[in-house]
Amino acid sequence: MADIAVEAHNLTVSYHHKPVLWDVDFQLPQGSLIGIVGPNGSGKTTLLKSIMGLVQPDSGYVEIFGKPLEQVRARVSYVPQRESVDWDFPISVREVVEMGRYRPGRLLRRLDSTDKAIVRQSIARVGLEAFADQQIAQLSGGQQQRVFIARALAQQADLYLMDEPFAGVDATSERAILQLLAEMKVAGKTVVMVHHDLQTVQEYFDWVLLLNTRLVACGPVSSAFTEDNLRQAYGGQLTILSKVAHLVEEHDFPVRDRSKKQRT
Amino acid sequence: MNTFLSDPNAQAVVAGVMLLGASAGLTGTFTLVRKRALLGDAIAHAMLPGVCLAFLLTGQKNPAWLLLGALVSGWLSLLSMDFIARHSKLKPDTAIAIVLSTFFGLGIVLLTYIQHSGYGDQAGLDKFLFGKAASLTIQDVLVFGWVAAFIVGVVLVFFRAFRMLAFDFDFAAAAGMPVRLLEFVLATITVLVVATGIQAVGVVLMAALLITPAAAARFWTDRLWSMAGLSALLGSTAGLFGVGISALAPAMPTGPWVVVWLSVAAAVSALAAPRRGILARSALRRRNARKMERENVLKAFYQLQEANPLQLTAFSKEDIQERGYFRYSILRKTLARLRRLGLVEVVSQLRWQLTDKGLGESRRVVRLHRLWELYLSHKLGMADDHIHDSAEAIEHLLTPDMEKRLLEELCYPARDPHQSEIPYDDPLRSQNTAL
Ligand SMILES: Nc1ncnc2c1ncn2[C@@H]1O[C@H](COP(=O)(O)OP(=O)(O)O)[C@@H](O)[C@H]1O
Ligand SMILES: [Mg+2]
Asked: Nearest 5 degrees, angle CA B128-CA B134-CA B137?
């Protein structure tokens, strides 16, 4: 396996004594696009948060690039779920993206011209130049998601942990984000992404991690994204799944027709 | 008032109280955007036992001791709320309510004890309950003025860090910001603000001094910096107002008047602020309604022309009313407006017709309606009998830019799904028979 970006050892996390992640153990390779897939409440968000040290595990630990998080924090960027913040907050797009340039050691210092240039570039890369000085409430859901991604880009990290960046996103934003992912992959970045749409897993990711409190499977999409594993991860919710599982079996994955998606 | 203000002591009091109001306004901005509005109230009430204990232990109302007592019990209340929220499944507002009532109850017990045990000097403790800005002594103001100046300084220095914490705690923590430290600093200045602010307005109304200026400021701006500035300004006018009231009418309780002043400011903001205010929003709604009425009448003209075999162009009000199902009073007003805009004119025998300009406008509205129906039907696959209602609303919203994109995407179609012709200004366009 290529160099390892994220490695979890026997990770167990619980809220009020109820385990949400149970003895999860995996390694994710550098330089790939990795999807985390599982039903609602299966612990996907909790997994990202424990990688970022935002929740304390009961046992086990996580290493990033072979080191504890504290030593490599500047190389890791976190994109929270969009609903986790108040989009009515009195702040502009630029001010949010500038947060990507704040660093612990220079909390009170002003941003310099390099920082400002990086902020401008990051906004341009997600195609929001025209909105830079608008308040974030005036953006569409997809544009708000792109603001979060621009903030992550401004951090210039090597590993990106994104929580459902495609949730509630319009077609333009989806295309813009996909384009960015492709660019990031070419630049050798690692992107770990919670993803809810099983139909696009094949198309978007190299590697997949199937989760349902316990780790169901983790590996290259071709070997880990199987009907058996999906059945294990999703259990009784298989009605929606049978169709997908069927496609998986055929080993022939049609590229999604966007006009059809809008029709549903 | 004049004699009051020429006294240098009084000037110091005014300056101190204004600074105090400003510090409350600044800190309250963060309390508000972090959605902790209840917290100020809880901390204020929770300070009573600390103040009473400080008085009992030292036997005097030295402002520094009372402030210390207030700080300690304010802080303890914060810790208890945090503890309850962390170690139980209770909701945060339940935790706040429990702590508030427990601490305040204890405070009332202590206060009653003090009042009944003949401490001659306990009258000053009333200030903590109801506030009396003008009776502050120069010593009081020296203590509180410096505390307030310190708070203003801290907020200005940590402004961006606080903003990041308030907007996205998880991101700040993930980026390695010292979030625990920042939370501690923010909590400490909130406790400090409340402890000092109580002097001016009293326990019961302190929450209003903390939250109302920020809430009023939010109506006027979409940026945290200007919101904080405006809120500080409002807070300091509240301080000034409080001193003025208690100097002019010593019998009046200061706190309630300060709160009345702030509430008026908040009400005016909610009403009159541009864009977010109630008036601005209802004006916008009214403008939209007028626009819809105008466009619907123009459309009725177009449809009447299109439908009649004699190529008539002038119609009576009754014709128009029948065509568009308008209320008569609205039709009358709308026709008058269209006439003032030069879109319709009166010809003989009370008949109305479109001017050239009006004809162009009516074509545009009909075109948008039919284009949108076509879009829904062909691009989104909606059933033909479901698309009319959507188009009725959307035709008034589509901008010229969106119109252009629709036209391109649909290749300048000639007919809509119901086979009605799509009217163009440039007759050549209608030659196109794509679809
Ligand atoms: N802060 C919290 N306190 C208590 N329970 C939580 C908390 N966050 C998440 N949970 C619970 O943990 C489980 C996993 O949540 P989450 O990681 O958000 O799942 P996912 O992102 O896969 O939908 C859910 O049952 C959720 O209700
Ligand atoms: Mg989640």
From this structure: 80
In order, the DSSP letters of B58-73 are: HSS--HHHHHHHHHHH
Clarify whether residues B336 and B404 are in a common domain.
no
| 3-state SS class at B433 | coil
B15 in the same domain as B79:
yes
Q: Which ligand 1 atom is at minimum distance from the Cα of A81? A: 21
* Residues B316 and B386 reside in one and the same domain: no
The contact set of B with A (CB < 8 A) is 33, 35, 89, 157-158, 160-161, 163-164, 166-168, 170-178, 218, 221-224, 227, 379-381
For residue B72, give both structure tokens: 């300690």
* Residue B16 and residue B37 in one domain: yes
* Cα end-to-end distance, chain B, whole Å: 82
pLDDT tens, position by position, B175-220: 999 999 999 999 999 999 998 888 777 777 888 889 999 999 999 9
Write out residues with Cβ below 6 Å of ligand 1: A 15, 20, 38, 40-46
Q: d(Cα A55, Cα A60) in Å, to the nearest integer?
A: 12
Q: Find the domain containing B325 and state its range.
A: 280-354
Report the alpha-carbon distance of residue B258 to residue B235 in Å, rounded.
10
Report how far residue A179's alpha carbon sits from residue B92's, in angstroms, rounded to the nearest whole number: 42
pLDDT digit string (tens) for B16-55?
888 889 999 999 999 999 988 888 889 989 998 998 898 8
On whether the CB atoms of residues B114 and B125 are closer than 8 A, the answer is yes
Token pair for B323: 């065509």
Pair (B53, B201) in one structural domain: yes
Structure tokens that stand for B191 in this block = 């406790």
Q: What is the CATH number of the domain that holds B403?
A: 1.10.60.10
Query: B303 and B410: one domain?
Result: no
Q: Which residues contact A262 (CB under 8 A, 6 or more apart)?
A: A171, B380
Shared-domain flag, residues B211 and B103: yes
Q: What is the tally of structural domains in chain B?
A: 3
Give me the residue label for tokens 């391109």: B408
What ipTM does this complex have? 0.90
d(CA A106, CA A119): 17
Name the amino acid, one letter, at B285: R
pTM, two decimals, is 0.83
Both B326 and B393 in one domain: the answer is no
